[in-house]
Every structure is written in structure tokens, then in C-alpha cells.
Amino acid sequence: MKYFLLFLVLLPGVIIRFIWLDQVPPGLNHDEMDAVMIARSYAYFGTDTLGEKFPISLIKNQVETGDDTLLSLLLSPFQRLLPVNVYIARLPMVIINLLTILLWTILVYRLTANKKLALVFLALFLYSPWSIIFSRSLTQAPLALLLISLSLNIFWKNTALAAFLGAIFLDLAFLAYYGTKPFTIIMGLILPIWLGFTRKKFKISVAIIFWLVFGLFVAGYIYFAFTIPGSTFSRRRQEIRLSTWSQIGATIDTARRTSISNPFSFIFLNKPAEFTRLLLQKYWNYWSPDYLLFSGDPSSNQRLTFHGAAYLPDLFFSALGLGMGMPGISLAALLITLGPVGTLVNNSLPANMYRGAPFLPGLLLLIAAGITKFTSHKKLLPVVIVGYLILSLNFLHFFFYQYPVTAAETGFLGERILANYLIKTSGEVTVIAAQPLQVLQQVMYFSQSTLGDKPRLISLSGPYNYDRIHISQICPQQLPTGTLVVQFGINCEPPSGNKLVIQDQKDTGTLWKIYNDETCSSSDLSYWRRFHYHSDYKPEIMSTDQFCNRWINKFKNI
């Protein structure tokens, strides 16, 4: 009976990962589209979308996101063997997420030998907001988190073979995601010491094997990253915070100029002090109530707005969990301390959910320990279960019913709608966009194209000709007579012709302007959107008239 009740608690956490998988989030952002298009290219041609072959593409990747190679290789069989749609694209991420949950739970049980703690950790991982988001995110961070958990589980055996395989999987985690590279490097240095401390038996031979395998791999990557022209690392190393030392100097100069002269300025206003302040500011943002409880990432690209990455009681239980036994606290401390390092050394905004991914299992472990202690009095267990059930339902309501609208453009729904409009339009269409390659990828993916010619190195800024669709970054001197689609903010307007728009679903602002439309003008169009339905977020299966009525609006000059 006890295990049946446990099954009833855990099963919905698995099922919700498959619900509306192609509709929430409502679109594929640029990083995700890069990943699936590279996967399709590998499946058909053995290269990335711009012609780089494996294994050179591990180091030299011409797409903007840079580190999609491992993820795309994993996705490629799904793209070759199964239908091309958003559901299938995200399905591997659900599998990755569930495997990650299982492996971290096994590791927690191995560390603590506490079945109740491991089961509480498992339930928390299944229903954690950030974990549910990761299960639908076609980005490299979830894959890196899986590979890190594999490395830790294997290395736990504390044998020579375990050291070799554990180092290999940590190397793969290093390759999988640019944001976890700093974390994996530090983890590679201290992991054998942590294992020896935790198991109370440090084996120098095991440690040497691990350090040699991991170190040689990382050193080889860095060597080739510096020697191969146009490598991902050489293009992205300006993102490292150390490269902003001159900017920090300018900040200090300004601070000194705007202070009353005194002999102590050089002590309190200097580059090391400012650099330390910036690092601490970014680290403590991971504990920020705004990030954890109310709004999620500060970055507009991942911001949840009406919910945080955790639940309200989590901070209380994480504080209570600090008193757990040493093996458990050592892993939690390791992950929480080192987890944010990918964000700390990067110029991105504070508390990035993806770059700080290892922080999150560490926090869950503290929370699970706190709940385990709190529910040692069995009468309190139903209170905790009911409380988290209500909080989980509140998050799921937000995620499935509010998030598709409030985060429509962080999910790049507008580009998905644009791609479907272009596919459904029968005549010649010219598109003027700030990022033509991204529009091209959206059109190719949602048209279920077989990709046409073999990929080759091309200009990232276009122009591109795809069937009857012409995509450019620059408004032509002589405007076309056919349909013209212009991204909002770009000055490219014909002197006459009808005008329709694709709107931002959150505030009805214009995303794309459509001139001389021949597809939707005859439909019964409105000026703005009044209602949202889940069926709206599958535009690929709509008839042309349904699509126009739901997604294309008349323009009203207010």
C-alpha cells in the first residue's frame, strides 16, 4: 500500500512532461532552432547546418550558439526516423530530464543511505519548476546536467575503471555546454579529493587516472580551440568576465571622480574590490527571492514573470536541511558553491538558470533534507504533501495556461507564426528581418523540408532564397510587387497596398507587418486577439482560413 501511494504521487510528475509538449513553450527560440536544424543536418549529411564536419564541429561551430554538436548528435536519430514537429523535437529532452532525475536520486541514496531522503528528493525533482522547464528546453544545459550526474555515479565506485569512465563523462559535460565549462574544470580538479573525503578512503592511483584523463582532454580542447581559426572558444571568449577588466577600470575611474577627495579612495575604490563585488552580486542572486520565488531569471529570455524557479517553502526547508549528515551536506555544498560559477565568470545577467544548472540539484538536496527532518513527526507529512500539491498545481496552472501567452516572444512564437504564414502563402514573398538566418531555419523546419542541397559555409546575414520566399536583412531599393513582410522596427514600407500584422500576444504590439497580402485578406480578420486556446498553438495543422482568423490581424493606426 505504501509503495502504491508513492507511485500515485510520482506518476503525475512524469505524465505532465508529455502534456502539450508542442505548445508549451509556444515556439522554438534561436538556440533551440539551431539545435534541431543541426540535428537534421547531421542526420542527412553528417555535418552541421553550415558544413562543418564532426569532430571539427566540436571545436569549430559556425552557428551562433556554438556548443550544439553533442546535443544535436543525440537529437539526430529522432529527426531522421520520426515526424518533423515540435513534439518530436522536445521528446528527447523529456527522456534526458527523467534520466537525470533518476541518476541524481541514485547518487543521493548512495551518499546518504537514507531511502526516505532519496524519495523526497525524487519527488521534489519531478515537480520542481526549473526541472519541468528543463524537460522541454532544447538547450545544452539539461544534457550537461545528465552527463555530470553520470560522471558522479560512475566515479563513486572508486576504482581505476570508474575513474577513467567518470572522467570521460565529465569531459563530455565540458563539451556539451559553454556555460558549464568553468564548473566542470573546477569539478575535475576537486572531485577525487571530495570522493576520498566522502568515502574516507583516498586512492592516489584512482585520482591520478581521473586527473590525467580529464586534464589531457581539456588541455587538448583548449589547444585546438586556440589553434583552429574561427573556433567557438575564440569567438565567445570575450563573454568571460575577466575580459571586462578595462570596463571595471572605467567604473572605478567614474566612482573616484564622483567622490569627495580623501586618502582612502584607493583602498575602497579599486579594480579587485569592484570585481569581487560583481561576483558576489551574481552569486547571491541565486538566493534572491525574486529569482527563486517570484519571477525567475532576470534575463528577459528566460524570465517567468509570475513564478520563480522554486516554491515558497523551499528556502525554509533548505535552511533546515543544513543540519543533514556530512556526506549529503558535502555534495549539496559542492553543487551550491560551484554551480553558479558558469554565470559568475560570464558577462550575462545574474542567476541564469541554465549556466547555473548544477546549483539547482544541490538546492533540492538541501530542501529534501529539511523536509525529511521536518516530517520525522509523521503527523506533519500530510501537511507538507498537501502544501506542495497546492503549490505545484499553482505552478502548473501558470505554466500551461499563462506562460504560453506571457512568454510568447521569449519562446519566439512570432517567428513560428511567421514561418507558418510564409508556408501557407502561395505567391512570391519577400521578408526583411534583423536575423534572416533564423527566419530561414524556422521556415525550413516548419515546412518539414528535407533540407535540399548539402550545407555549406554561407553568410549569416543572408540574403537567402528558399523556394518562392526571399529573406534579407536590408530593404531593397526597388520594393517587390508581391507580398512583403517586414519586421517591426525596420523602415521598409511600400507607398501603397493593404497592411496586415502579426501581433505580440501579450500586449498586442506589432511584430511583423505584412503588405500586399494575398492569403488572409479575404478572411474575417479582427484588429486584436480576444481569447487564447491551446488549439491555437498548433498552427501547422490549421487550415489557411483557421490560421488567418486566429493569428493574422488587421492593422489599426491608433
TrEMBL record:
Transmembrane regions: 87-109, 116-134, 154-175, 182-198, 204-226, 315-336, 356-374, 381-401
Q: Does the keyword Membrane apply?
A: yes
**The keyword Transmembrane belongs to this UniProt entry's keyword annotation:** yes
Which keywords does this chain's UniProt record carry?
Membrane, Transmembrane, Transmembrane helix
Q: Which domain of life is it from?
A: Bacteria
Question: What is the recorded name of this protein?
Answer: Glycosyltransferase RgtA/B/C/D-like domain-containing protein
